[in-house]
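Researcher: Sequence of DUF1697 domain-containing protein follows. Predict its structure.
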Amino acid sequence: MTVFVALLRAVNVGGTGKLPMADLRSMAEDIGLQAVATYIQSGNLVFTSDLEAEDVLCRLTEVLTAYFGKTPGVMLRTIPELETLCAQMPFPDAPPNRVLVTFLPEAAPSDALEAMVAPDGEEAVVLGREIVVRYPDGSGPSKLKFPALKPGTARNLNTVRKLLEMARERG
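Model: Prediction complete. Tokens:
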């Protein structure tokens, strides 16, 4: 059994992508995922499966596409991937609620940082399939322009750590 964390893009954000977490848990169980749990309302799913990651991703994408009527973004990570991410986390002195990790479907382009416009002093580090951004004044008032973040889904560092903890409990 592998423990996975699925991070859904644009779920329950700004009045779009409405998906009750009870429905998400039911969908996951219906496609054969086990030890299913959700965390907060933004599309975080922790579970175990005998399936390979690609099969899990296909099944989740299919069931969510049927639900939403369009293909959602689903980023899938394992415990070792999240542990490596947390071990490499930049900005150790920043408050964790001001550090956002954007999970991408594939590795960020090598020139991702070149297109970033950070008028409020934001800093970013690319870590393969994740981009970590420190927002000095929080992400809400930020005027950051960073095209490489668009295909991904962001979680603050507190949420990332909680998801890792939940995954370890299943592992």
